[in-house]
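Summary of Year 1 activities. Much of the first year was spent building the evaluation harness for sequence design. The harness presents a backbone, in tokenized form, and records the residue chosen at every position. We chose the following record to illustrate the format because it has been used consistently in internal testing since the harness was completed.
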């Protein structure tokens, strides 16, 4: 088991005394974890790093952290497997997931399994500190970058796509096709302002932030028109044929 020891920095004597809270950062990207530890050491007295995610349970048993900052990439994504994983981990410490993307369904599943918080990796250090202090008090914390509505829908086992109105599905489809707000407004006989309003409402409901994320969501949830699916199948068939031909020649 490899846990990086916290370096004692005497210069901290001039800073606000950190609390005695133990924080374990579970992240295989050591450079990122090291930078995170430096930021947290002024707030919390014991901050350690675990690079080997496979030894997380053993490390939690020996170090006995109050809070575990867990890189979401270390956790399984399968529903049942994820629930069992978080339930076992949450029995030992309060867990805050550090996620790379805003996935409402993943957050809802994690919270159901006992995770106390979720913060995106692009958040400010002040928000992460706030999250840690919240969970220490026995509360939960979910970043404001993930809408409460999207999490609530996911928590009720209702697919978020089914929570969209028919008009929102139409707008999302056109957004995914690459249409601008002006083009969407023209095709749906709306004002540009209304088209933009619908797009923002969709983003809020799905917990997404960019047009690229909306497009990916539409593709993954089959909200694109049939011709897109047909085109995708044709492209894949063409790629497979080319690969087979190349193999035959070699």
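For this record, the design step produced the sequence shown next.
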């Amino acid at each position: 088991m490899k846990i990086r020891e916290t370096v004692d920095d005497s210069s901290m004597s001039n800073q606000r005394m950190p609390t005695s809270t133990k924080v374990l950062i579970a992240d295989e990207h050591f450079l990122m974890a090291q930078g995170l530890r430096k930021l947290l050491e002024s707030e919390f007295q014991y901050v350690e790093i675990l690079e080997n995610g496979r030894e997380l349970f053993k490390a939690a048993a020996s170090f006995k952290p109050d809070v575990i900052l867990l890189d979401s990439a270390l956790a399984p994504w399968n529903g049942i497997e994820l629930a069992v994983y978080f339930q076992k981990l949450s029995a030992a410490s309060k867990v805050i997931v550090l996620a790379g993307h805003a996935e409402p369904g993943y957050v809802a599943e994690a919270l159901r399994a006992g995770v106390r918080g979720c913060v995106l990796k692009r958040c400010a250090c002040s928000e992460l500190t706030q999250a840690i202090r919240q969970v220490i008090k026995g509360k939960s914390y979910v970043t404001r970058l993930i809408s409460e509505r999207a999490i609530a829908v996911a928590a009720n086992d209702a697919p978020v796509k089914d929570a969209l109105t028919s008009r929102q599905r139409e707008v999302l489809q056109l957004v995914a096709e690459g249409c601008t707000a002006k083009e969407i407004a023209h095709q749906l006989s709306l004002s540009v302002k209304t088209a933009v309003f619908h797009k923002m409402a969709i983003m809020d409901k799905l917990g997404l932030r960019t047009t690229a994320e909306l497009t990916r969501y539409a593709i993954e949830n089959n909200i694109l028109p049939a011709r897109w699916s047909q085109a995708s199948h044709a492209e894949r068939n063409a790629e497979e044929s080319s690969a087979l031909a190349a193999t035959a020649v070699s």
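The chain has two domains: 3-154, 160-249. Quantitative recovery figures across the full test set are reported in Table 2.
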